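Tip: read the tokens left to right.
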């Protein structure tokens, strides 16, 4: 089938893309750029750099800005999916949803309205398994957002490698966090992966952080 991927640039949307590409054709990625950092539906850190990831993978990329206003942003999502149906004849949508019923039910309704398939390959996957999949598939990503105790600003820009994964799993026990960040504790950005023909070098960043919440603003990045 021809499937479009709702793609934020983070580890979960990339992993969903890789799973889906094993059996389906992926003619395009779809990215919503929210004007609100705390969008109910969409990942926001480093979202403007998804274009580099699309280029690195050689996949067409459709983007659309959205106000980020709760529920209204769903209209923008429906419009970009409708554009993908028209332009690339897609038959379904792939999401990186793991446990968010709020997101999954709303995307499913849009797909039902447009009579296309909604595929959630990571749904209900244990979060420890997701982290292990990143390591076993050599998916390189960095942390671009944190929003929970005990994350300080040293986590921003940190590579999600074996040491980081071990640390996250330890924090699951000590602080009851979701180790893969499903509760919004961490956000990520993939810089290299099996589907990439070039890696992304992040050359300049700025950390914006206060009271266990922060984001890594990527100011310069390029393909290598």
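Filled-in amino acids:
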């Amino acid at each position: 089938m021809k499937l479009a991927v709702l793609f934020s640039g983070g580890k979960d949307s990339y992993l969903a893309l890789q799973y889906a590409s094993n059996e389906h054709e992926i003619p395009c990625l779809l990215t919503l750029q929210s004007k609100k950092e705390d969008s109910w539906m969409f990942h926001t850190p480093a979202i403007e750099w998804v274009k580099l990831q699309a280029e690195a993978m050689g996949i067409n990329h459709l983007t659309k800005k959205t106000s980020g206003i709760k529920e209204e942003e769903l209209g923008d999502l429906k419009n970009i999916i409708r554009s993908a149906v028209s332009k690339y004849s897609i038959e379904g949508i792939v999401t990186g949803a793991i446990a968010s019923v709020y997101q999954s039910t709303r995307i499913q309704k849009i797909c039902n309205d447009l009579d296309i398939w909604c595929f959630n390959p990571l749904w209900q996957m244990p979060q420890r398994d997701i982290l292990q999949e990143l390591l076993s598939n050599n998916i390189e990503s960095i942390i671009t957002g944190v929003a929970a105790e005990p994350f300080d600003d040293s986590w921003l820009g940190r590579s999600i490698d074996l040491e980081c994964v071990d640390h996250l799993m330890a924090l699951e026990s000590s602080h009851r966090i979701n180790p893969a960040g499903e509760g919004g504790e961490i956000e990520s950005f993939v810089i290299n992966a099996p589907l990439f023909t070039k890696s992304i070098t992040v050359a300049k960043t700025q950390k914006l952080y206060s009271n266990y919440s922060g984001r890594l603003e990527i100011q310069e990045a390029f393909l290598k």
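Helices lie at 11-21, 50-57, 72-88, 101-114, 127-136, 162-175. The longest strand covers residues 200-210.
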